[in-house]
Every structure is written in C-alpha cells, then in structure tokens.
Backbone:
C-alpha cells in the first residue's frame, strides 16, 4: 500500500510539517484510490507500545547507531543487520540476486558493516522521478548533501 501512497500525485508538495497528519494522508489516500477511513489509524494508539517495543528489540540486536530497515536472519540466534538501503526498485531477477548477496553477507561470521552515503534520492514518482529513469545524484560534503553536476 505504501507504493500507492508515495507515488500518488501531490505527495512531493507536502511539507515535513504536515507529514503524519490528516492533511498529509487524506489527499494521498484519495489519489491512490484507498478508503479515507485508513487515516483513522493516525489517532489509534493501541499499537504504539508494541511498535516501540519491537523497535527497541531490533536496536538491541544491531546497536542503537543504525536506522531502519533492520533484518533479523535466522532468529532468535541469528545476526541482525541494518539494510539493505536501495534507491531504485530492482527487477525481479536483480532482487533475487541482491537478496542472495545480503543473505550471504549475513551468514558470514563477524560481518558488521558495508556502507556508503546515499547517492540519489529514492526513485519515486513523488520525488518527480518517472519509473525507469535515474534521479538527481547527491553526495555528502562537509556534513550536508551536495548536488553533483
């Protein structure tokens, strides 16, 4: 469902101040053809404690210096890693190849990290990028993102 919401027309114009609000969600749900009452979940707190606990459990497996996604391989004893973070949707064949590499790294005893800074924004219509095209490339420079020519 998130693909429909993030690809909905108008998603790019919404500001960070409105994200997580009905003003943010309502037009995206409508544009994606989804029921408006899904926005009721914004005010539903019954899952908050469980979500927080699961987040804390995930961070206890990786360390608190990572973000999401966190994948736990072969729980409960297996390793947990942050990632993978990709900016483009892979083809089905590339997705299988990528997953094979990720699981291979996760199975290597002592593997801890493989990282570089984000090179391009996620390839979503809401960022103005049409499927099959590359977005604006970025790199970190002196602590902030710098657009590359």
Residues:
């Amino acid at each position: 469902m998130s693909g429909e919401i993030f690809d909905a027309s108008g998603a790019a114009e919404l500001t960070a101040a409105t994200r997580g609000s009905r003003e943010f969600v309502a037009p995206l749900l409508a544009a994606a053809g989804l029921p408006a009452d899904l926005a009721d979940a914004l005010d539903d707190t019954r899952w908050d404690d469980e979500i927080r606990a699961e987040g804390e459990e995930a961070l206890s497996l990786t360390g608190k210096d990572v973000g999401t996604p966190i994948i736990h391989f072969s729980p409960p004893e297996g390793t947990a890693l942050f990632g993978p973070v990709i900016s483009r949707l892979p083809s089905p064949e590339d997705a299988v190849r990528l997953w094979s590499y990720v699981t291979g790294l996760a199975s290597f005893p002592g593997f801890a990290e493989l990282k570089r800074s984000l090179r391009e924004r996620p390839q979503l219509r809401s960022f103005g990028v049409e499927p099959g095209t590359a977005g604006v490339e970025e790199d970190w420079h002196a602590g902030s993102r710098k657009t590359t020519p």
User: Anything to note?
Assistant: Residues 1-44 form one domain.
